[in-house]
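Recap from last week: sequence in, structure out.
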Amino acid sequence: MSHKGSLEYWPHRRAQKLLPRVRNWPTGSEPAISSLVAFKAGMTHVGLVDDSDSPSKGQEVIRPVTVLVFPRIFIYGARFYKSKYMYRQSAGVVYDKALAQKLGMKSAKSTNFNEAKKNVKEYDDVTALALADPSGLGIGIKKQIRFEMRLGGKGPEEKLAFIEKYMGKELKPGEVLGAGEFVDIIAVSKGKGWEGPVHRFGVAKLYHKSTGKSRHVGTLGAWHPPKVLFSVPMAGHLGFNYRTELNKRVLKVGTTQDSASITPKDGFLNFGILRNDYLVLEGSVPGRAKRLVRIRKALRPSKKAIAPKITYISTTSKQGA
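Predicted structure tokens:
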């Protein structure tokens, strides 16, 4: 059986939401923005000077890259947590009134920010509440996206002061990420519908005269126990799963002004042209075009961050590919 049947990704079930949940967060001594959201635009290729320890070190090499485009991102509030028994439980929320009205939330339900500052020592943790507005990307997605992210720092007082500094202000990707830095990508993979065991698990096709069928499993298991085990390859849904890829290298963090320099002729396939700040990542990213992607600071970076020297960016048309 190939890697497609790995129990590391069990159970094979569809993602519940397009916004993936982050299970682990990087920790640091200083508070910092640890997560952003973006939309997948497409792929192209770039030329850069190889700075690895491979035999091609110092030479120009061609690398496939994925371009992600950022919506406008704001921090609109904070959430407080208290540890009870074995779990953290939410103990109150503070909103920015202007952004709360824009979201359609009732700010009367939120606690007073000044009171929260006085009683912040009562809480065990403080997280930031962020809002992403994709209406200006021109991709037909206008619904605002709300997500939560943890911050570094030593205590809730330091974290709340950091949130207050950015409350109601737009977050610029260039202030959070830098060229050469490593990030983790969390996204939902492409959905491929109902597939048989040959495609889903990579089992071998049977001889055409064995049972009259070739693209099915030869056996469903032993006689005892008298049941079909969950690990037996069978037909079912394939794709549209949560996937996390670690240590994707950031090659470039671009702005709206220079987005035309990386947009291919005729635009990205199934996406169009870039109209906002963007990110160039080495390699591929799960999901189709226009798919929501969550970017997290690298949980365990494997290499030192070194800004690459890009010599060429392909802008040829991808429509005929």
